[in-house]
Specification:
The protein has one helix spanning about 5-25; strands at about 40-50, 55-60, 70-75, 85, 100-110, 110-120, 130-135, 145-150, 155-170, 170-180, 185-190, 200-205, 220-225, 230-240, 255-260, 265-270, 275, 280-290, 295-300, 315-320, 325-330, 335-340, 345-360, 370-380, 385-390, 390-395, 400-410, 415-420, 430-435, 435-440, 445-450, 460-479. By secondary structure, the protein is mainly beta. The strands form 6 sheets. Strands 23, 24, 25, 26, 27, 28, 29, 30, 31 and 32 form a 10-stranded antiparallel sheet that branches. It has a 5-stranded mixed sheet with strand order 4-3-2-1-20, with no helix packed on it. Strands 13, 14, 15, 16 and 17 form a 5-stranded antiparallel sheet that branches.
Length: about 475
């Protein structure tokens, strides 16, 4: 570790020591979501299960609540409930990453942990350079940088980043999000026999493939994995125009299901489907654990969307992760469900039956800043709504086949809404933290994720229905 690296780490820890007590005094501080000690958190990185622990690294700017030269922060857990903050994994201290250790992934080989990431470099005129870099660890806590292992190929701009690495039939592969010189998004592939020397194989999908000539100007954070006999490519395209209920956020995250031909190489796939219908979801990354489960983490925010309005900025922190979600395939549809381990957080169970007919009532949610609500066996004539702390409302309009999540904007000046269509509604599963809501519809058929910032004194959760609605309700306080 260089002297510059040590100095950057020292300064980061000083920021944490100075500002974390202020961050922890924020009434919007989360209770059961991963968040930064101070400063800004964004993309999950290097998510992996290794030697009995889940590792989640993350993009971290410790010195401010804006973006800048990113570090890799690091959390570990054995049970996906109790998380431990580890030492800084990577600092932007070398010529190849001096303006940021950008996003990447982790794999294991010969009992060692390998981190792949993008080194971001800006020259004195602000021009960008990009390098794919490697760091290695024997203990999963301290990492030795090995430097640049792959460089920018011809035909692409320096918007070329976020390597995700995996092994297939004895060869290592790396998918990277890219922008062509004519400013179109692609996913490209590299291969290696030893993890340190990589050869460029070319694009596998994006502009020029599968009818996607005009599908965003940059693809970020690709993740390619096999699931139930298919290959799934998750990607975050930038530059999609809103289309009805689709693509309502500034940038999107979604997936293609198909089959990767490693010989061409080319991914033959179907249509792009958004992963989350809410306001705040981006840069997802997955891992496979020791039980063979495919688990997803995502950043509960979107770049360039309302960041300056978060009230947590006054407390020296911003952003968090989603809860971990298990992925399964139903045809061409990814189903997302909260991990069963999260049930260990449950306390003070209440089971009630609701029967409404043109009425409303308060749900007995003891601590809505840390609660789980499960609505099951739903039967409704025309629909119903759940109002959460006067700041967010979930509603189902049966005649239209539409579910909606509304919230007050972060600056409090307007009401915003996100929608999606469903054929029927039988289950609604809500996780309410101090400043977020995640809602799983029909056992993960659709998900809405959102940050929201209720007035700290408002603890009311109410249900209402214009026609006849009944359901069974489970309510828990979490942790």
């Amino acid at each position: 570790m260089t002297a510059h690296d040590q100095e950057l780490r020292r300064r980061a820890y000083e920021e944490v020591e100075k500002k974390e007590p202020i961050a922890n005094s924020d009434p919007h501080r989360q209770h059961f979501h991963i968040m930064p000690p101070v400063g800004l958190l964004n993309d999950p990185n290097g998510v992996i299960y290794w030697k009995g622990s889940y590792h989640v690294f993350f993009q971290w700017q410790p010195f401010q609540t804006g973006h800048g030269a990113k570090f890799w922060g690091h959390y570990t857990t054995q049970d996906v409930v109790n998380w431990k903050r580890e030492e800084i994994a990577l600092a932007p201290s070398d010529w190849f990453d001096k303006n940021g250790c950008y996003s990447g992934s982790a794999v294991t080989k010969d009992d060692r942990l390998y981190l792949f990431y993008t080194g971001n470099v800006r020259d004195q005129d602000g021009n960008r350079e990009t390098y794919q870099c490697l760091a290695v660890s024997d203990d999963g806590l301290s990492f030795e940088k090995k430097g640049v292992v792959a460089r920018l190929p011809e035909g692409y701009t320096a918007h070329f980043r976020d390597p995700k690495v995996w092994e297939h039939e004895g060869t290592w592969y790396m998918v990277i999000g890219a922008q062509t010189e004519n400013l179109k998004g692609q996913a490209v592939l590299f291969a290696s026999d030893n993890l340190s020397e990589w050869r460029f194989l070319g694009p596998i999908t994006g502009a020029g493939f599968n009818g996607l000539d005009d599908f965003g100007y940059m693809w970020e954070c690709p993740d390619l994995f096999s699931l139930q006999g298919s290959d799934v490519l998750i990607v975050s395209p930038q530059g999609l125009e809103a289309d009805g209920f689709r693509y309502q956020n500034v940038y999107q995250s979604g997936y293609f299901v198909g089959r990767l031909d490693y010989n061409k190489p080319e991914l033959k796939h179907g249509e792009f489907t958004e992963l989350d219908q809410g306001f705040d979801f981006y840069a997802p990354q997955t891992l496979e654990d020791d039980q063979g489960r495919r688990i997803l983490f995502a950043w509960m925010a979107v770049p360039d969307q309302d960041e300056g309005s978060h009230p947590t900025i006054d407390y020296h922190w911003i952003h968090c992760m989603t809860l971990p979600r298990q992925l399964t395939l139903s045809g061409q549809k990814l189903i997302q469900q909260p991990l069963p381990e999260l049930k260990a957080m449950r306390r003070n169970e209440k089971k009630i039956h609701i029967n409404m007919h043109g009425s409303s009532g308060t749900l007995p949610v003891e601590k809505p800043e840390r609660a789980e609500i499960l609505l099951e066996d739903i039967h409704t004539e025309s629909g119903f709504s759940i109002s959460i702390r006067g700041t967010a409302t979930f509603s189902f309009h049966k005649d239209e086949g539409i579910v909606t999540l509304e919230r007050k904007s972060f600056d409090g000046k307007r009401t915003e809404a996100r929608h999606c269509r469903i054929k029927d509604l039988h289950t609604v599963h809500m996780f309410l933290d101090a400043s977020s809501v995640e809602i799983f519809i029909n056992n993960g058929e659709e998900v809405f994720s959102a940050r929201y910032f209720p007035f700290p004194g408002n603890h009311e959760v109410t249900a209402s229905s214009t026609g006849k609605s009944e359901m069974n309700v489970g309510i828990w306080t979490l942790m």
